[in-house]
Every structure is written in structure tokens, then in C-alpha cells.
Amino acid sequence: MRISTQQVFLSNIDNLNRGTSELFKTQQQLSTGKRVLQPSDDPLASAQIQKFKKEIARTEQFTGNIEVAQRRLSLEENTIEQINNQSIRLKELTIQGKNGVLSDGDRSAIASEVGEILKSLEGLMNTKDVQGEYLFSGNKGFTQPYTFNASNGRYEFNGDDGQRYLQVGPETKVAATDSGFEIFEKVAIVPGYVEADLTQTVSVVSNIDIDNGDAEAFGAYMGTNGPLTMTVDGAGLLTVTDKNGQPVTADDPAVALTAYDLATNPNAPTITIAGVELDVSAANAGTATLDAFDQHNILNTALDLKEALETSDFSTEEGKDLFNSKMDNILDNLSGIEEENIAARASIGGRINTLDQQALVNEDFKLFTKEALSSFEDLDYNEAISLFALQETALEASYASFATVQDLSLFNYI
Question: Can you give the pTM of this predicted structure?
């Protein structure tokens, strides 16, 4: 086979370029500590490396969510703890206010402290997190949950009952928020200490007798069907419809209350809906709207306590008995508020524990994934250094041999 001088030169140049390229690649591996520098180096390993990196990034996102949830739940837990302390103080003041030897000045002083507690409670129940969202508004993060309605003299909840969940693990979600509706508005109804929100142009409904019915059942019924629209026409015919405009069926009499004749029915003027008696007047035509019961959240309970201390009549035995009855109802309601508070804190504590455990699980998973990633991606320095020395020696030999070959020429001997 005949080999030309040009072939010799080109072949040696190719060998030198190849050796230099391999040496440069090994040098890059040594400087980066990575075995796979580009997908073409090892397509199979490259695919696994991308998969492991995605898993690590997802786990880091879970860790970030855990930190957000822990921060918010810890703030919520501390806020509810302070509200509970204020609730306990209200109970102490209620018991103190029932003392029969107190003077008007003493009760006024207690009422003044209740007023300060009320201000504190309003601030606590409208607490914002570090992002400027209200803690207890549910999904309406930028809507103030509790505001005072001057028209009816009550505090009203403006949020919703939603919770926001954060993904903290591949299959784990944790509620990072709580609604004030669940924590503060679902206080067990105290018979004798509930009011219906009754808006009417005339006195259609004169009395709602909660003592003769199941207040909790009626509250649940109104929550599903309320508000009820009650209309009495000039002929004394009563029509009651629910929020969807459908006729309401009474328990007693057991008829659909559509054009029910109050004037001639022997059961009039009392009808029973969901176990609760309502006195309806046939003499006063008009329309009334019956909404759900006010279940006396702690703000309205504090208002009632302050009002009872400031306005009750102690000049008669009847006035004193009425005051004592109000105070007993307030104490019962505060006990219900305390139970809801304990349940809320237990729920938050359970979720914080879940977050702590999930954080450990995520750290372990991240560690194992990084170990697997390292087995595909990271460089074996001993092997790489040995290979680098070998490639360096080979390249030097290539240069030396090429220098010898290029000096070969027949003209040197002529």
C-alpha cells in the first residue's frame, strides 16, 4: 500500500486533535467534578440525571410550602391562644359582675375593662399575616373578616368558610388557613340566648320562641334554607318561602305555608318550623325576612356583657333576675366559645406536627435522590486523574513521534 507524505501529515494532525480533545474533556470533568458534561456523553445517564434533578426541585418546593404553612399556622395558633386568654378573662369578669354586692360604679368599671377587651379581640380576629392577608377570612384573604355594623349594633363576619391547602409532599396536602366562620361562628347555640335577624316593614313575626324548640336544629335548617320570606296579606293569608322561593312546610300545622289562613285557623297565630315556634300576627299585613340565628361569636358576646353591666335595672327583683339570667347565658356561651377555641388549637397543632414529620420525610427523600444523582453525574477523581495522566503521556508521545516522522525525506540523503 502506498502512503503519501500528505496522508502522513493529515493522519498525524487528526490524531493530535483527537488526543487534545480527549485531554480537554477530561480536564473539564476534573474542573467541574461532573462525569456527564452533555447528553451525548452518556444519553442513558443524562436522562436519569434530569429526572433526579426534577425530583429534587419538586421536593425543595414542598419544603418551601412547609415553611409557609408553618409560619402561618404558628401565627394563627398564637393569635387564637391570645383570644382564648381574653375569653377566660371575660368569664372571670362575668362571674365577678354577678356579685350582688357590687355597686353601679363597680359594674361600670368592669364594663370599661370589657370594652378594652373587646377592642383587643377585634384586633386579634382581624390579624394579618406577613403577606398582608387576613388570617381568618377564608378564601377572601384581603377582606376584613369582622366589622361592626352600626345599623344593628353587631359584629358581622365578612369572609367565607374556605380553607387554602398547600402541597407539602407527593401525596400530602395540609390546610394552611382557617376560616373565622369555622373557629368563631359555629359556637353551640345557648337556648334563651339567641336572636334571629328579623328585618320587617311591619310586625308580622312578633316572637320566636327558641326555648320551646331545638335551637341547634333550627340553626342548621336556617343555614340551609334561610333566609325565609314571610308575607301576610290583607286577608290574613300567610306565605313562607325559602331562599330559593320554594314554599316552606311547617311542623305544626304540617302544611306547606302558601296562603295559609291565619285568621281562621285554630292553631294561629303560632306556627312551628324546624321545631321552633314563631308567633305570626294576622292583623299586621306585610313582609318579614327571617335570617339565620346570631350564634354570638366572642365579639358580640363581649358586647352583650358590656351592655348588661351598663344598662340592667337593679332597682327591682325582676330586673335583677333578668340580669342574672343574661349573665348565666353569657357564661354558657363563653364555655362554648372556649370549646371551639380548644378544638381549633388542637387541629392547628395536629397540622403543625404533620408538617414537621413531612419535612423530615422530604429531607430523607432529597438526600437519597442526591445520592442516586451523584452515582450518575459525579466524577470519580481517582479514575479521572489516572486517565488524564495517560492521555497527557499519549499526546506528548504523539507530538514527539510526529516531529520525528516529519523530518523523514529522501532529499536529506541526496
Answer: 0.68
